[in-house]
Amino acid sequence: MVRLLRPFGRAVTYTRWLHLFIAVVWPAMWMFVEEAWWTWPVAAVTLAPAALVPAMRTVEGLQARLLLTGHRHNSESDDIVVAPSVSWRDRGRLVVWLQARLLLGYATAMLSVQLLLTSVDLVASALGQDVDEGVLVLLDGHRWWHVLLAPVSVAALAATVVGSGRLITALALRLLGPSPAERLAALEERTERLLERTRIARELHDSIGHALTVAVVQAGAARAAGDPAFTDRALDAIEETGRAALEDLERVLGIPRESERPVSSRPTLTDADRLLESARASGAKVDAEVTGPVDTVPGPVSREGYRILQEALTNVLRHAGAVPVRVRIEVTGEALALEVRNPLTADIPGPGRGSGLRGIRERAALLGGHAHTGPDVGDWQVHAELPLR
Questions:
Q1: pLDDT for 180
Q2: What is the pLDDT of residues 108-144, one digit of tens each?
Q3: What is the pLDDT of residue 251?
Q4: Who wins on pLDDT, 48 or 39?
């Protein structure tokens, strides 16, 4: 019993009923003026050209979203589209929707009014009052038991309200819902948002992880050296790395707030000297070889290459410490090659451990390239190749 009464405690039940009544307001007013049955077919024919106007889909979508689903126009729900029609298929579905809404609205309005009047007539007949000849129920005289039929009429009215509301909502989801092209566009948009979140998390890991690694290595080396001059250099390196990390943190955290901000502010391989100097300041002996025009590398490839180099150097400092490092950056007409090698130590990260190495491979794969991380002829190697086209 509670389940049957639950819909009547929801506002959307009554707004759906109102939505159906709104559809027949102007044809009903026209019928009372003309007092002719043909006003309804004419009204149906008149709606067809209106559906061809692209903005009509927005109007109907806003009404349906607010009254049938209870969602506002700025809701993230995409069950009902509030955008203008962009294809003849959308306009055709809107024609069917307007006709169905008019027909169902007319049937619901007539049935609701007749059921309500029938309930009143049944009660009046049981009380011995004269009533007009009923449309749905033929009353034969005044009988006390007529009042027992009134709840049946009320129940039928309730079923009409709930059933017609659910039916028009189902039609709206089918006829005013997104087209296959719009569903694909929405899916691509959601995918882009997920990729953006993944990129933000990865950049925070790379940038902050690099800064913390440099700070830890520098602090440990300064304590072990016991040399005031070396300690000053270590503090300078920690300060510089910390400031760079704060800039990266502010930029990355600003991405969700400024979705239209250009990505050109992100570091590229032209800023690789900053990474190399940071590693050298941490005690690593970095031998860098750059071949080819690095400044001509496309932006996305150059930015991802910078992050790959950053993570590779961070990996060296974290697991090997102050050891000789060979860095090779080669730009050819077809690809960008990055290689970072250092002597193997006892603490060797496996190729599948850690989010940093996995992030290197994911970055390379995202651009259609590939990356290899692991031991190679007595060295630990990070090698990545990224296509330029």
A1: 80
A2: 988 888 888 888 877 877 777 766 655 555 566 667 7
A3: 63
A4: 48
DSSP 47-96: HHHHHTSHHHHHHHHHHHHHHTS---TT-S--SS--SPP-SHHHHHHHHH
Residue 346 sits in a domain whose CATH number is: 3.30.565.10
Q: Which domain holds residue 288?
A: 184-387
Considering the chain, what percentage of its residues have pLDDT values greater than 90? 14
Count of domains for the chain: 2
Nearest partner of 26 among 102, 108, 133, 104, judged by Cα: 102
Half-sphere exposure of 146 toward its Cβ, with a 13 Å CA cutoff?
23
- Indicate the residue among 144, 178, 212 that finishes a domain: 178
Spatial distance between the Cα atoms of 165 and 67, rounded to a whole number of angstroms: 10
Per the CB < 8 A criterion, the answer to whether 329 and 272 are in contact is yes
Mean pLDDT along residues 262-287: 80
Residues 211 and 153 in one domain: no
